[in-house]
Amino acid sequence: MLKPKEFAEGLAHHALSRREVAATLAGAGLGMAVMPMASRHARADPNLSIFEWSGMELPDFHPEYTARYGGEPQYTFLAEEEAALQKLRSGFTVDLSHPCTASTRRWRDAGVIRPIDTARIARWGDIIPELFKPNGVLVDGVPFLMPWDFGFSQIVYNPAIIPLDNPSFDVLVDPQFERKVSMNAQFDVALAVGGVIAGNQNIFDPTEEETARLVEVWRRMIKTSRFLWSDGTEITQAMASGEVGAAYMWTSGIVELRQQGLDIRVIDPVMPWLCGLCLNADHPGSEEQAYDYLNAVLDPAGGKALIESYYIGHANAKSYELVDHATLVEYGLDDPAAALRRGLFFDEVPPEKRDELINLWDEVQAGG
After folding, report:
1. Among the four given CATH numbers 3.40.190.10, 3.40.1190.20, 3.40.50.1220, 3.40.50.720, the one describing domain 152-271+347-365
2. Which of 56, 39, 164, 135 is nearest to 346 (CA)?
3. Pick from 100, 155, 242, 361: CA 20 to 30 A from residue 188's CA?
4. Whole-angstrom Cα distance, residue 7 to residue 312?
């Protein structure tokens, strides 16, 4: 069972499987079937439905909406963006959805989301400007996603175990550190990290030649890794014990290790991810409430709650004025704009290449 902070981080990164969510809830005496109940304690009947990641529906994140309508929207929880897209294409209808930037264009092309009228969102101008730069916020110049939550994934090392004169992602394939490093098992992570090591020009859209280099990097990465991790607690414990000295990690594990007194250092570039809310094309509820909700989740008070709950960033620049500066430093959010500028955003993989690349990653993991 995941610890509370790791469970929250996994939810925020959308990186937990349904099995991991169910196991953690079961350990707490809960079940998947009861999760939506937390959002159905309304004193009124808000006319709004949202396709949301479990854990991101908390009333603390949108207090203005709750106060205005006397209750909560109706939430349906998604577990993976591609599966969510297929559910929407099959006829499922909601008012708002919460994909990430790498999926927005695919969702737009499928006709399941529609443009956002930014004039109806009073706090739109408070959004951190750097959050408009990743592909997927604007699609062909039109806003289809309102930035809301973002964070950073990082390659880190402990110099007491792995001393590095010139730190780079190459530490994950260096034979002198064999079985002292650890990589994440997710395809998108392998594509990004492997692409950096391979020197690919566009790590999310490799050419045929770059794909061949990428596959070779993946083979070296798996040979060097002590294990490929999928559980944030597993890699945090391995780093804490000294079993592993360098790894791909989520922010929560880095914060925890530093709180234990370990000298955990980050290797550039950090890899930011950005998610947000979209207006669904087929929306059964109130459009006015949909826009009220969009503005409500940009409330700095809700942003403070999001930052302090999940160690992740909030889109409204004013949220950071409400959080203790030392806390922001600890979470790597004391200057989010600067961090976003130096990072390498997770981007969309061309649909015609995605399945092929996933199959290659699976084959390499299987020993191919």
Report:
1. 3.40.190.10
2. 135
3. 242
4. 13
Q: What are the strands, taking DSSP E only, across 115-201? A: 138-139, 142-143, 146-157, 181-184
Which of 289, 350, 269, 283 minimizes the C-alpha distance to 105? Answer: 350
For residue 292, what are the CA distances in angstroms to 51, 196, 221, 300? Answer: 16, 41, 47, 15
Structural element, H or E, at residue 267? strand 265-280
**Is pLDDT at 57 greater than 90 in this prediction?**
yes
Q: Does domain 4-150+273-334 have CATH number 3.40.50.150?
A: no
Contact 103, 292 (CB under 8 A): no
The whole-angstrom separation of Cα 78 and Cα 145 is 17
Answering whether pTM is above 0.90, one says no
Tens digits of residue pLDDT in 219-264: 999 999 999 998 788 999 999 999 999 999 988 789 889 989 999 9
Q: What is the pLDDT of residue 319?
A: 98
- The per-residue b/e assignment along 297-310, b for 16 or more CB within 10 angstroms, e otherwise, is bbbbbbbbbbbebb
